[in-house]
Amino acid sequence: MELTERKKKILHSIIMNYLETGEPVGSRTISKSPDIKLSSATIRNEMSDLEEMGLILQPYTSAGRIPSDLGYRFYVDQLMQEKEAEEEKREALLEKVDRMEAMLEQVATVLASNTNYATMVTAPQYKNPAVKFVQLSQVDERNLLAVIVIDNNTVKNQMIHVMEPLKNDEVLKMNVLLNSFLQGLSLRDINLELIDTMREQAGVHANILDSVIKGIAAAMRDVDERQVYTSGATNIFKYPELGKPETAAGLLNTLVEKHALTKLVDEAEEFNNEHTGIQVYIGNEMRSQNMQDCSLVTATYELEGGGTGTIGIIGPKRMNYQKVVKTLKNLTGELDEIFNNR
Amino acid sequence: MELTERKKKILHSIIMNYLETGEPVGSRTISKSPDIKLSSATIRNEMSDLEEMGLILQPYTSAGRIPSDLGYRFYVDQLMQEKEAEEEKREALLEKVDRMEAMLEQVATVLASNTNYATMVTAPQYKNPAVKFVQLSQVDERNLLAVIVIDNNTVKNQMIHVMEPLKNDEVLKMNVLLNSFLQGLSLRDINLELIDTMREQAGVHANILDSVIKGIAAAMRDVDERQVYTSGATNIFKYPELGKPETAAGLLNTLVEKHALTKLVDEAEEFNNEHTGIQVYIGNEMRSQNMQDCSLVTATYELEGGGTGTIGIIGPKRMNYQKVVKTLKNLTGELDEIFNNR
DNA sequence: TGTTAGCACTCATATAGCTCGAGTGCTAAT
DNA sequence: ATTAGCACTCGAGCTATATGAGTGCTAACA
Predict the structure, then answer these.
(1) What predicted TM-score, i.e. pTM, was given to this entire model?
(2) CATH code of the domain containing A11
(3) Which of A323, B122, B206, B335 is most buried, judged by most C-beta within 10 A?
C-alpha cells in the first residue's frame, strides 16, 4: 500500500498528539486539528490503513491509536527531518570544573534537569593508551608513591609499602630505569620479556619494580574501563507508563547497574560512524528486557585528545525526540570545547 | 498504665509477626503462638491497652494491629536486647581491593545484596587533614604535575599548564620550597602570610606556586567533603509499602541525591558516642519527608588512621532490625581490619 | 471515486451493590 | 482475672451496570 502525503500527515499528527498526552489518539481528535480538514470518518479509514501497515496500533478494540515501534522509527527517520524545528536555546550552561569526573557527572545532571529524562554519560575512551611519565617518590619511611601519567593526561597513583626506605639516589635510579623503558609504551607493549630485562637492571629492588608495573597495569585497565555516569533516573516516575512498580524496578536497576548501559552504548558507537553520531533506539530495538518501554537516544562526542564517549538520554517511547536530538547535537559540539579549555 | 511483662510479650509477638508478613496482626494469630497461652479475647483486651499507650495502632477499625513508630522504637530499645539472637554467620565476604573508593563501593554492594535493603557508606573523614608530602614533576613541555599526599595517605593530583618548561634544578628547588614550608600543615595553617613568604622565595615561579597551593586547597576540601556510596536502592521495590510510585520516586531521589543522607548521617555521628555506635531512626525520627515510611540503621566505623565514617541500611519500618544490627556490628569490626591490611 | 453522516457495536473505566471474613469490643458466665 | 460468645465494623474482592470514547461499516452525497 502506498504511504500518501495525507497518511504521513495523519501519522505525524497522531504521534505528536500521543507524545503530548500519552493517551491513545482518536479519529475525532485528529479531525479537529487545524491543518487537516477531513471528517473523522475519513480519518478513520486512513487510520485503518496505517494500522494495516503496522505504523500504529490499538491497545484494544475501539480505543484510539498509538504509534507502534515501527511508527516511532518512521517518525524519527523521516518525519522529524522534514519538519525542521524552530531554533531553541538551551538555558542552563555548564560550569567549568577541574576534574574530568566532576565534569561528566555535571553533564549528566544538567542534561537530566533540562530534559526531564534519565541521562547517562560515558567517560571518554582512548584507543590504546600509553605511558607518558612515571615517577616514584619516597613519601615516608614505609611508603613509596608511584605516580603514573597516561598519555591523555590521566594520572593514577599507587602506594607501595616497603620494609625500609630507599636512599635518595636509589629512587632516582629507579625513576630513570622506569621512564627509559616504559615511556611511550601501551599495555600490550609491556611484555614479560621487557619486564625481565628491567628486573635484572633493578637488582635488589625488583620487587618494587613489580609493584610499579602492577600499578601501571591497573591504571591502564582503569582507563580502559568505561566509566558511566547517570543522572535523573527518578525522572522516569514522571511518565506513568514507566513508573509502575513492576517495570520501574527493572528499569531503575539497569540505570543503576550500569553494565547493561555500557553494552548498549558500545554497540551504538560501532553503528555510528556513518551518521551524524546520533542514534535512536526504540523499545525492542534494545536488547534489554527492562528497556522495552523506553527509548534511548545516544550521541557520540569526540575530544581533541582522541577520546570518544557517549551521551545518552533515556525516556519513554513518547519522548520528545525533536528536543532531545537537538539538545544532544548542541551539547556534543560544546563538550569538546569545555573539556579542552578546562 | 503499667507495661506488664505480659504486655511486653504480646507487643513483641505483634512486632515479630508484622515484620514477617507486613500484614496487620490480629488477636487470634497471637493467641495461637506457642508461648502465649491466652485466649484471643484476653489478647484483645491487652491489645486495646497497648493501643491506648500508643505502642500499636489499627490502620482502620476492625483491622488487626500494627506497631506504631513508638512501638518500633520500644522494640529496638528494649525488647531486642532482652531476646539475644542466636548466632548467625555472614555469607559473602569482602574481597580485598586496592582503591579505597572501590572498597567503599563494594561494602555498600555486598551489604545490599546480603540484606535486601538499600545501603549507604560514607568515606572515612579525618579531622583536620594535613599535608604530608608534595611533589612537582615536569611531565612534558607544557605540563607540570603536582602530586599532593595527605597524611591519611590520600593522594591528589593537579595538572599545571606552563608556558615553557622549567629546568630540572628549578623543579628541584620548588620541591624543596614546597615541602619545607608545607609539610605537616593543615588547611587552616596555610594562611596568606605564609603564602606571601613562599611567593617571595619562589621568585619568577610564583604563579606556579599559586597553582600548587590552589591544588592543595582543592585536595584538602575534597578529602573533607563526605563522599557517599549507595547500593541496592531498587531493593525498596521488594517492599510494597515503599514501592508505590508516589513514595518510591521521592525515596529513590533521596537515595540518589545523597545530600540528604549526608545530613542524616552527620547527626548520627554526633549522637553516637555514648552508645555502641549503632543508631536506629524510625520513620518520622528522620527529618526527611521522603523517609517517613522507612527506617535507617547506622553504624559508625573507625579506622586506625583516625578516620571515621558511617554505614547505613535503609529499609521499611518492618525491617529485620535484629539481623541488620548484627550485620552492621560484624561489619564495622571487620572494616577496620580490611581497610588497614589492604 | 473520494468524502461524509449516521448508526450499531465494542470495550475500558468507573461506580454501585453485594458477599465474605478477619478482626474487634462488649457482656456475661466461669 | 479469664474466657466464650455474639453482634458489629469495615476493607477486599466480586459482579452487574452505566458511561462514553472510539471504531467499522453502510449508504448517501458531491
Answers:
(1) 0.83
(2) 1.10.10.10
(3) B122
